[in-house]
Amino acid sequence: MDYLAVKHTHMAIAVLSIVLFYIRSFSRLGSGAIAKNKLVFIGSHATDTLLLISAISLMAIAKINPLEQMWLLEKIVLVIAYIALGIITSKQQKTNVKVLFLVATTVVIALIGKLAVTKTALFL
């Protein structure tokens, strides 16, 4: 498959993944009914799986090694942090703690986006 097609697919899936994350998160700040919806739950996990597949495909097509490209290594570490924060956020009971973790996750998402656009390491 063509690199640009995979890249644009990856970007579209990333946006969908983020939108679904916020839908679930804001739902949990309220009644949580949308977050508990099977279609939303399965759709979120399917989207994240496709996001991972497209990311691996991009690395393979471009022959990029995250051990040689520090920006990509940082992005992978931040994606792991995003997943961990998302899990932690979903398990919180107190609204103010949920909001705090939601803000932290938003910062991580912004950093991931910055790395994706600039391809310049922030920390390493």
Task: Describe what this molecule looks like in 3D.
82% of the residues lie in helices and 0% in strands. The mean pLDDT is 94. The protein contains five helices and no strands. It folds into two domains: 1-63; 69-124. It starts with a helix and ends in a 6-residue tail after the last helix. By secondary structure, it is mainly alpha-helical.
- Helix and strand content put the structural class at mainly alpha
Whole-number radius of gyration?
Answer: 15 Å
Strand count, sense and closure of the main sheet? none
What's the SSE pattern?
Answer: HHHHH
The parts where pLDDT drops under 50 for at least 5 residues are none
The number of domains is: 2
Number of DSSP helices?
A: 5
Distance between the termini: 31 Å
Fraction of residues in β-strands: under 5%
Question: Could you estimate the helical fraction of the residues in percent?
Answer: over 70%
Total number of strands: 0
Q: What is the overall shape?
A: globular
- Look at the structure and give the mean pLDDT: 94
Keywords: Membrane, Transmembrane, Transmembrane helix
Organism: Pseudoalteromonas haloplanktis (Alteromonas haloplanktis)
Transmembrane segments: 6-27, 39-64, 70-87, 99-117
Protein name: SirB2 family protein
